[in-house]
Amino acid sequence: MPRLATIVVALLAAAGVLFPAFPTATAAEIVAAPTGVTIPKGYRDWQVVAPSQRDDKDEIRVILGNNIAMKALRAKQLPFPDGAILAKLAWKRAKSAEFDNTFVPGEPQRIEFMVKNAKKYAATGGWGFGRFVNGKPASEQDHATCFPCHQANVKGNDFVFTRYAP
Predict the structure, then answer these.
(1) Domains in the chain, ordered, with CATH?
(2) How far apart are CA 117 and CA 38, in angstroms?
(3) Residues 79-84: what's their mean pLDDT?
(4) What is the pLDDT of residues 104-116, one digit of tens each?
(5) Contact at 8 Å (CB) between 113 and 92?
């Protein structure tokens, strides 16, 4: 457990420094994913829901939530209310040069968003999904994989994988 705590502390410390590595779009450059989801302005200022790691992709991730999502997460409110937005920032896992047996965020991989709007996204559990690589939306084919995975694995948690880590 101490190793996990060290990894989490290093991840969160590095994530605060590395958020600028993700591109931001100017008003003229705003593009939407095939689902209509765009990169929300100010998402880097959102609060941390939880860090995560995915070994099969060799990635470290940080999940952020807007104020609506954070309030719902803290209250353990399901389903999430309309207006809740979750962001996932993913980096390749890199060995820390300063601390043995520790991994830190390396190259940015993508950012992903889940936007709750029960009416607009009724066909996908009330969530709109947006995946962006280098500030540009991923393909429609890539987006088509989002909801089936969430539906198969976390339907009972309003289709959200991440749990709040206080």
Answers:
(1) 2-157 (3.50.70.20)
(2) 14
(3) 98
(4) 999 999 999 999 9
(5) no
